[in-house]
Write a structure and sequence with these properties.
- It is a single chain.
- The chain is an all-alpha fold and 455 residues long.
- The protein has one domain.
- 76% of the residues lie in helices and 1% in strands.
- It contains 20 helices and 2 strands.
- A two-stranded antiparallel sheet has the order 1-2.
- α2 runs parallel beside α13.
- It is globular and about 70 Å long.
- InterPro entries: Glcn_transporter.
- It holds the Pfam family GntP_permease.
- One of its GO terms (cellular component) is plasma membrane.
- This is Gluconate:H+ symporter, GntP family.
- GO terms for molecular function: gluconate transmembrane transporter activity.
C-alpha cells in the first residue's frame, strides 16, 4: 500500500476513535488525544520510535509557546475576580455602553486587541472581563465569550500586523497596506455574523458565573435588570486600578509590534520595548500590577490562596492544549499534510480557491491556523504568475482557510471552552467549531465578492 494512502487511512481511523472516546466513553479528553495520536502514527506506518519522540515534542512545543501565558493569565484572572476588579470593569462598561450592547462591545474589543496579540493570549487576558460582565448583567457568558473569541480570531487571522497574515504577505510579496484594508473589509461581515450567532447561542446555552469558580444554569433565563448607573458596592478598586493589569500588557505588546514593523528594533529603546512587549513579560507585569494595586483589602493568605487556585485551574487547560499539540505533531512528522497540499495543487480547482482549500485541509488535519495559512502560501507562491493570482487575494484566501472548523486539535478550542466552563462535547463544538466555520464561510463569500470587483 502507498505510504501516503496508509497514513490517510490512519488519520481517518484515529480521528474516529478520538470522537468515540470523547463522546461515548469515560476516557478523559487528554488521554483520548494522546491515544488517538499514537493510533494514527501506528496505523499510518510510522516508526514507533518516531511516534514516541513526537509525543513530548508536540506537547512541549505547544506549551513552550503558550504554557506560561496560560498560567499567568489564569492567575491574573483569579486575582481580578477575587479583588472585585471585574465588578468595577463591568460597572464601567455598563455606564459607558448603556443597555444591551455588551456582546457587540466584546466583538469589537476582541478584533482590536488581536491585531497585535495572539488570539489565545488575548482571550486569556480578557476572559475576566467577560465573566465580570456576565455576572453583572446576567447575560450568558457564552454569548459574550463567543463574540470576544470571534473578534479575536478574525483580526488574528486576516489583518496585518497580526503574525499569521503578515507572514503570508511576506511569503507572497503582497502589499501590507492593501492586505490590511481588504482583510478588514472581509472581517466586518464575519464579525456581524459572529455577533448574531453569539446572541443566538447565548439563549440556547444560558450560563453565568457563580461563586468560587462554579457555573450556574437557571432553568428560566434571568431578567437583565440594570441601568446606566453603576451599582454602589463597598471595597471596589478604582477603574484605573481595575483595568491596568489588562490594559498595560496589551499596550506593551501592541507598542512592541508597532516598533518592530516600523523597523525600530535596534538601539536601547527598541531593545527595552522588545523585552517589555514580549507576551510573557507583558503578562507578568500585569500580574505584578494586580498583586500590588488590587490586593490591599486582601490578606496575604487570601492573595496567595487566590494565586494557588489560579495555578490549579490552569493545570487542566495546559494538559488539553499540550494534548492537541501532540496530535498535530504526529500528523506533521508523518508528512501527511504536505502530501495533501501537493495533491490539491495538481488539480483543476479555480485559482482563488487553491490556497483556501490547501489551508482549510491543513487546518483540519493539524489544528494550527497559522501553520495552515503559511504552508498554503508557500505552496502557491511559485504558481502566482501561472495562475494569474493577485498576491493579496491569494494570501487572504490562505488566511481564510486557516480559520475553518476549529476542534479538538486546536489549542484555542480548549482555551475558549474551558474558560467559559463548557464541558459537554456537543456544546463545545457549537461554541467554537461552528463559530470558526461561520467566520470562514462568511469571509470566503466576502473575498469572492471583492475578488470579482477588484481582483
Amino acid at each position: 500500500m502507498n505510504a501516503d494512502i496508509q497514513m490517510l487511512i490512519g488519520l481517518l481511523i484515529g480521528m474516529a476513535l478520538l470522537i468515540f472516546m470523547i463522546t461515548k466513553t469515560r476516557v478523559h479528553v487528554f488521554l483520548a488525544l494522546i491515544t488517538s495520536a499514537v493510533v494514527i502514527g501506528l496505523i499510518g506506518g510510522m516508526n514507533p520510535k518516531d511516534i514516541v519522540e513526537a509525543i513530548p515534542q508536540g506537547f512541549g512545543g505547544t506549551l513552550g509557546s503558550i504554557g506560561i501565558i496560560i498560567g499567568f493569565g489564569v492567575m491574573l484572572g483569579k486575582l481580578l475576580e477575587d479583588s472585585k476588579a471585574t465588578t468595577t470593569m463591568a460597572n464601567s462598561l455598563l455606564k459607558l455602553l448603556g443597555k444591551d450592547k455588551e456582546v457587540e462591545a466584546m466583538g469589537v474589543v476582541g478584533f482590536i486587541t488581536s491585531l497585535s496579540i495572539f488570539c489565545t493570549s488575548g482571550f486569556i487576558i480578557l476572559a475576566p472581563l467577560v465573566k465580570g460582565l456576565s455576572k453583572k448583567t446576567k447575560k450568558s457568558v457564552v454569548a459574550l465569550g463567543v463574540a470576544l473569541a470571534g473578534g479575536l480570531v478574525l483580526s488574528h487571522s486576516l489583518v496585518p500586523p497580526a503574525a499569521g497574515p503578515i507572514g503570508v504577505a511576506g511569503i507572497l510579496n503582497a502589499p501590507i497596506g492593501r492586505m490590511m484594508l481588504l482583510g478588514t473589509l472581509i472581517s466586518i461581515p464575519s464579525l456581524i455574523v459572529v455577533i448574531i450567532y453569539a446572541r443566538y447561542l447565548g439563549n440556547k446555552i444560558y450560563q453565568i458565573p457563580g461563586e468560587n469558580d462554579t457555573w450556574i444554569r437557571p432553568e428560566n433565563k434571568l431578567e437583565t435588570v440594570y441601568n446606566n448607573e453603576a451599582v454602589k458596592e463597598e471595597g471596589l478598586p478604582s477603574p484605573g486600578k481595575a483595568f491596568a493589569p489588562i490594559v498595560v500588557p496589551i499596550l506593551l505588546i501592541i507598542l512592541n509590534n508597532v516598533l518592530t514593523n516600523l523597523g525600530v528594533v535596534n538601539g536601547s529603546l527598541g531593545t527595552v520595548f522588545s523585552f517589555l512587549g514580549a507576551p510573557i513579560i507583558a503578562l507578568a507585569i500585569g500580574l505584578f500590577i494586580a498583586l500590588f494595586a488590587l490586593t490591599k483589602n486582601m490578606t496575604k493568605e487570601k492573595t496567595l490562596g487566590s494565586v494557588e487556585e489560579g495555578l490549579k485551574a490552569s493545570g487542566k487547560l495546559m494538559l488539553l492544549v499540550g494534548g492537541g499539540g501532540v496530535l498535530g505533531k504526529i500528523i506533521q512528522v508523518s508528512g501527511l499534510g504536505d502530501y495533501i497540499a501537493s495533491s490539491i495543487a495538481k488539480t483543476m480547482i479555480p485559482a482563488i480557491l487553491l490556497p483556501f482549500i490547501i489551508a482549510l485541509l491543513l487546518r483540519v488535519i493539524q489544528g494550527s491556523g497559522s501553520v495552515a495559512m503559511l504552508t498554503a502560501a508557500s505552496v502557491v507562491s511559485p504558481m502566482l504568475g501561472k495562475l494569474g493570482l493577485d498576491p493579496v487575494f491569494a494570501g487572504l484566501a490562505a488566511c481564510i482557510g486557516g480559520i475553518f472548523f476549529s476542534y479538538f486539535n486546536d489549542s484555542y478550542f480548549w482555551v475558549i471552552n474551558e474558560t467559559l466552563g463548557i464541558k459537554n462535547t456537543k456544546e463545545q463544538m457549537r461554541v467554537w467549531t461552528v463559530t470558526s466555520t461561520l467566520c470562514c464561510i462568511t469571509s470566503l463569500i466576502s473575498l469572492l465578492i471583492l475578488n470579482a470587483i477588484w481582483g
